[in-house]
Each structure stands twice: as C-alpha cells, then as structure tokens.
Amino acid sequence: MQTDSQNLRLWETGDQIQAVAMLQMPWSALDYAYHPGVEHLVPAIFDWAVERAAAAARQNGSEFTLVLYIPPARASHTVHALARGFRLEDDWTIVHLSRSLVEPVVVPELPAGFAFRPLRGDSEVEAYVRLHQAAFDSTMMRLGWRARTLTMPMYRPELDLFIVNDDDQPVAFCIGWVHPDGTAGQIEPLGVHPDYQRLGLGKAVLLEGLRRLQAGGVARALIDSYKSNDPALMLYQTADNGNFRPEYEKTAYVRTFTP
Q: Is residue 243 part of a domain?
C-alpha cells in the first residue's frame, strides 16, 4: 500500500513551491494546483500521476482507475490527458452548481422523531464513516481521512451536521465548508442512509446546511454532483429544496492501470 507521502509531489524553484499534486487515493482522483506562469509543469504533473497510479496497481495487485477532472478554465490540459491514455467518461463528470444565500432559506421540516445536531468530534468519526459508506454504497470514505478533516483550517464543527433518529443514531449527514474569503460556502458531502431515504431527510439536511452557512455570513452556496446522479441534481435544482443552478462541468477523464 502506498503511503500518503508517496502520493504527494511538490515542484519547487529555490525555496518557492511552484506546483503541488496529490493522488486522493480514497477517491482515485488527482488534485493539482500551480502558480500562474508555470502551467508548463502540467505535463510533468500528469506524468507523475501516471507513475503513481501504475505503482498503486502493481503494489495492490489489482486494477487501479485514476480520474482527472478538468474544468473549463483548464480545458487546454485535455490534450495532455488524452496523450497519456486517458479517455472521456461522462458518467464521472461533475456538475458544479451554485445559488444565492442573500434571501432567507426555507426552514426545513423534519418528520417526527428526527432532529439535527452536529458531529460530536473524534468520538463519532467511526459512526460517520459507516453512515457515509452505507449512503453511497462505497468504501471510499476511510476513518483516517475523515478524522483528518476535523483538523483542517476551514473546518467548522457547527457545519458538520447530522440528522439523528429518536435513538440518537445518525441517519443523514451534510458538511459545510466556508471558503477562505468568507463569501462562499461549499456543501460536500451530503447523504442519507438507505433505510431512511424517501422521508425528505435529504432535502431537510440540505436546507439546514444552507441555513447554517447563511447564519455564518456566507452569501453564495456551491455544491457538486455527478452528471449521472439524476436524483441529486433534481433535489438541488428544485425551487423549494435548494434552487441551485449549474455553472460549469468538471469533465472526467479516466485511465485504468493493471498490475
């Protein structure tokens, strides 16, 4: 298994960091950023990502699929992805949506026996991970990764939200993140346990998350969804649920590596 440090790479000139790249292993995705004026480093970043993904497949003895998300502002990077064997995968493409928080957000209504409350710190990280995995039918969310989110500079405990049942068991979740300038907030992620779906809990936890962002002075909310996730996109864009509107797509390019 690759360590976190192996999946982080810096490009430096002297004592100045010019670019950074990270393989987000739980999500099989590449995150990268660079200073203006050094976009010529993108091919080297992609070469490094290919090398690390191939190493992951060899070390794990199984296929590893890496995804590159390319927004419109980085459209010129597509040629570098295609040249390295990546292909368009529309189902993995992410739609980026936004809505204003200037006007009052609808007060959510919960069914009897349910309540909102925040995550209770480290003691509930394991419960969160179980809920997240159940909601998305995926084991991508990991205990260590989720625990580290509580230490991030942008983390605000009051925005790490649960809906609990009458046994105080978490059944839905929504996390809000405030951008450094304080003007925009991101909802990421949001989910409901399969046993509690179709009760309006997704709508309720979304609205409560938006209300809490608004109470913190945020004027604009952002949210992402896979292009193939019709129920989520419908929820976010319905007027009385979220009234989000698409801004752009982060196009997914994938490549599968074999041992």
A: no
